[in-house]
Amino acid sequence: MKAMLIEEYGREYAFAESDIAVPEPGPGQVLVRVAGSSLNPIDNKIATMGSALAFSPDLPAVLGMDVSGTVEGVGPGVTRLALGDRVFGCPGGVRGLPGALAEFMVGDERLLARAPRCMDLTDAGAMPLVAVTAWLALFDKAGLKTGERLLVQGGAGGVGHLAVQLGVHAGAEVFATVSSPDKASVVEALGGTPIDYTTASVDDYVDEHTAGRGFDAVFDTVGGPVLDASFKAARMGGRVVSTNTRSSHDLGPLHAKSLSLHVVFMLLPLITGRGRERIGEILDQVAALTDADELAVLLDERRFDFRDIASAHRYWESGRALGKIGVSVSA
Ligand SMILES: NC(=O)c1ccc[n+]([C@@H]2O[C@H](COP(=O)([O-])OP(=O)(O)OC[C@H]3O[C@@H](n4cnc5c(N)ncnc54)[C@H](OP(=O)(O)O)[C@@H]3O)[C@@H](O)[C@H]2O)c1
């Protein structure tokens, strides 16, 4: 089969098309004929930082965490999925688990689910990682409830725009920070209230949208100073969840308001092998909500063929994308 192998880590994006053997599904695994994938920031971090990240694969490697496609083989003991199923998920792209930038990949069936019936199969490859991350943050970590006020930092980003929709679905009043009118329109169209973080201070928007009280839950998809801003924006006793906490912070504000801080690291089940069932369960619910027209993934107008994955990385680096950068994988 054709695969795009990364041969060296770094900003040169040294991917090369290669012929490699079609993998055999092992126990609990399925063989997926790949239709789609997407570019997630973590794919870029692995491609550029390489061995500085403990979970980066040894070279040469097949990257690509998101996948959609059709099941063309099943290993021993597979029970959730069957030959011919249209599936999506995030079963690879880290050390020891080859990813989706190839015509076929094998994946643990617990990290996959049947794809939304209403979606084009290639498009479905842009949804799993961001949807699972947003779900883990809002429900498994923050325990978001109907009627609560939720603030999403980075509300038009990949994870953020799924979080806005899941928050609205949960019956929360959703607010989301953005930096441009385009992104504000995205948040509004999804049922949230945009906040331009380039003009409004945290105090301004806490006053305007919560009468100075603070948000019940804050989901930070950015990290760094935005995590500190999230502590500031949360109400007394509120919950803050972040996807980016490899950094040092003053926890004084957390103490002063008796906040709880939660971290999402959705790759852990891939890396450790533990807790994988939860990923499949969430994907099942994501697919059902998508088919019920309550969830959708926003795709940037540019999509890249997997043979042109280096250009997809460069486009992501440019910061010009609005929504997810889709990748199509076709024989
Ligand atoms: N830990 C995990 O399990 C996990 C899972 C998924 C993702 N992540 C990480 O989470 C981050 C977001 O992922 P993604 O896929 O959503 O990336 P993305 O699509 O690039 O979105 C990031 C968003 O952050 C916004 N942003 C940047 N600076 C901001 C600021 N100062 N205030 C508010 N918003 C700001 C950007 O919007 P503007 O252009 O409007 O600034 C952009 O929309 C990445 O670092 C990724 O690696 C972690």
UniProtKB/TrEMBL annotation:
Q: Which CDD domains does the annotation name?
A: MDR6
One Pfam family named in its UniProt record: ADH_zinc_N_2
Q: Which InterPro entries match?
A: ADH-like_N, ER, GroES-like_sf, NAD(P)-bd_dom_sf, YIM1/Zinc_Alcohol_DH_Fams
Query: From the UniProt record, which GO molecular function terms apply?
Result: oxidoreductase activity
The Enoyl reductase (ER) domain sits at 10-327
- PANTHER family assigned to the protein according to its UniProt record, in alphabetical order: ALCOHOL DEHYDROGENASE RELATED, RETICULON-4-INTERACTING PROTEIN 1, MITOCHONDRIAL
Protein name, as recorded? Alcohol dehydrogenase zinc-binding domain protein
Origin species, per record, is Pseudodesulfovibrio mercurii
